[in-house]
């Protein structure tokens, strides 16, 4: 018998290795993506998920954002029962319906958008916010429907509309059904404008693709958080397409403000008061 076919003389441990126990300190601390400072997570959450050392705006959940923006106990959620379907039977590395199922279970959200009505410093608003954690905040047919209903509800109630956008764009798993939402939401805004009430669009990091190319850019007032990536295609894709080096900070909110593409950059801690001021003036 050849030597390489012989069984090893060293005994193999058949017992499975014990899984490491989670540390009691796990999750108590966070590392800033910008300055690498280690921050007590509870303090970071109290500070609107903004680093106390460098003012970097970390990702913030949609529900926490809505709770911090709206008057206490004023939010009434609508359309929570709407769930995306799989009209194309789409499969990539995973079936779309399976991806939806696992994402719903992990996030306890039905899709990438939360909408409803509430008040900001006493001003009634129809409001919505993207859930970026849900498939990159991509816009499928249900997200487009919920965004449309934000403006339809604002039209019926004769109140301003506010939308927080954070999205990678149209959801490829729904193909043309997703792209149709760009026209659908834009048409809803055109109808809403006949009411004479303002639409405030707040762009977060990132706001790209079909979301940026439709309703996010159509606000009467367009606000953005510091250093948010905003644009249709990403800088790397543009550089590879035009084969030119882009300017420093291209597509960041500061660059867009300098070039007149947005109206203001607002720190997260000031956003509620800024929205209240705008709604008081325009609403």
UniProtKB/TrEMBL annotation:
Signal peptide: none annotated. Its EC number is 2.1.3.15. One of its GO terms (biological process) is fatty acid biosynthetic process. Its main location: cytoplasm. It is found in: Cytoplasm. Residues 28-283 form the CoA carboxyltransferase N-terminal domain. Binds 1 zinc ion per subunit. Residues 1-25 are annotated as: Disordered. Gene3D superfamilies: 2-enoyl-CoA Hydratase, Chain A, domain 1. Its cofactor is Zn(2+). Keywords: ATP-binding, Cytoplasm, Fatty acid biosynthesis, Fatty acid metabolism, Ligase, Lipid biosynthesis, Lipid metabolism, Metal-binding, Nucleotide-binding, Transferase, Zinc, Zinc-finger. Coiled coil: none annotated. It catalyses: N(6)-carboxybiotinyl-L-lysyl-[protein] + acetyl-CoA = N(6)-biotinyl-L-lysyl-[protein] + malonyl-CoA. Zn(2+) binds at residues 32, 35, 51, 54. GO terms for cellular component: acetyl-CoA carboxylase complex. Pathway: Lipid metabolism; malonyl-CoA biosynthesis; malonyl-CoA from acetyl-CoA: step 1/1. The keyword Signal does not apply. GO terms for molecular function: acetyl-CoA carboxylase activity; ATP binding; carboxyl- or carbamoyltransferase activity; zinc ion binding. Acetyl-CoA carboxylase is a heterohexamer composed of biotin carboxyl carrier protein (AccB), biotin carboxylase (AccC) and two subunits each of ACCase subunit alpha (AccA) and ACCase subunit beta (AccD). Belongs to the AccD/PCCB family. Component of the acetyl coenzyme A carboxylase (ACC) complex. Biotin carboxylase (BC) catalyzes the carboxylation of biotin on its carrier protein (BCCP) and then the CO(2) group is transferred by the transcarboxylase to acetyl-CoA to form malonyl-CoA. This is Acetyl-coenzyme A carboxylase carboxyl transferase subunit beta.
